[in-house]
Amino acid sequence: MRIKVDSVNDSSVFPTSVDVVVIGGGIVGTSTAYELAKQGVSVTLFEKGVIAGEQSGRNWGWVRQQNRDLHELPMAIRSLQRWDELSTEIGMDLGFRRSGILYGTLNDADLARWEKWGQQAKQIGFTSQLLSAREAQERIGDKTAWRGGVWSPTDGRAEPSQAVPAIAKGAQNLGASIFQRCAVRALDISAGRVSGVWTERGLVKASRVICCGGAWSSRFCRQYGIELPAANILGTVFKTTAAPEIVKGCLSTPQLCVRRRLDGSYTVAVPGLGQIDLAPQNIRYAAKFYPMFRSKVAKKLKIRLNGSFFSGPEASGSWSHDTPSPFEKIRVLDPTPDNRIVNDGLAELIRLFPALEGTKVDYAWAGWIDTTPDLVPVIDEVNQIPGMFIASGFSGHGFAIGPGAGLLCAQMMTNKPVYTDLAPYRLSRFDKGNVIRQPQMM
Fold this sequence. Notes:
alpha/beta, FAD/NAD(P)-binding domain, six-stranded mixed beta sheet, 21 strands, 28% helix, 23% strand, D-amino-acid dehydrogenase activity
């Protein structure tokens, strides 16, 4: 793999029966397994590749509440609380630091939008600081003529490569079992409801199953007539060599997004740039994504045609539980980064901050971001198959809100009171005839 993540050892005893099976070893899957195990629920997590091998280990490492879709904000607030608590609970450093997130803009329209959002967010329980041109200039520290910005001191950052594996290990310490390189091929359904899963190592009985498969979730669900509208967007990111500290936490500008890492380097990405592969899944859901593609958030996306039309998470085709599945054929999605974005991004970083002259690219990577038409995840039980749950479509927000999502999933699956309304996350909002809400924020 092009990324480096901490390793997790598989559990020793393969189960024949558990209360809950979690499909997928990203931050939502591991957090769900952790919260269920904390409740004393018997839970096993299956990952076709390795823990944090796909997007949960490839994201920017931002942990923010600022500029969230307001429907997501309560989950983001609760997630920050869980980020605060998890290192102590687990006894391992997740790399989480509340070092603040700063946005700068050259556009008065952004300032107006942030001001309006801030007024609405304050009613939900989050407060940030709108910056004048002078204040933005002082905080960012470069020579750009900024029109202003917004500063959220209670937001933070974490290290994806260590946080997700640490949560997985924490779940194991509470009694959860984890098996990597073991794909779930199919559901086992009896009398119309979930009764277990078929893995490549055999049948495991369970009364509840939750699909946290990220880019692969929609293809898995379609085998059972479950329509989960998703588009996977390819993004490129790079890590610099160690460099002087010009940003303590995270910085977003129209040209760059930067996070200071614990090792003294930076994670850098160019906001908005991405690619979508023309594939059967995208064609199937094109009409549902039309409002998003018309919006500002999708203006920099490019569409390409390549081999993913015939293989990968967005291809078509069926399989049975006793034959190898698409999930075994591609253990880890490890796409090639766009070198043009990497080279341009490094040049822009040094242009903005001349003190970083001489900084090099350590390594670069790319990842597939599973995205819904309104950029809000699906967290729901499937009506037509009782016992089947989905937590997917986190639209690039999953790392930050993963701990809160895991808590919400655990509460939902055990019929406990949930800490926030589930209505914004219902799968039924994408049913035929429903108007799909245009995304508010990224």
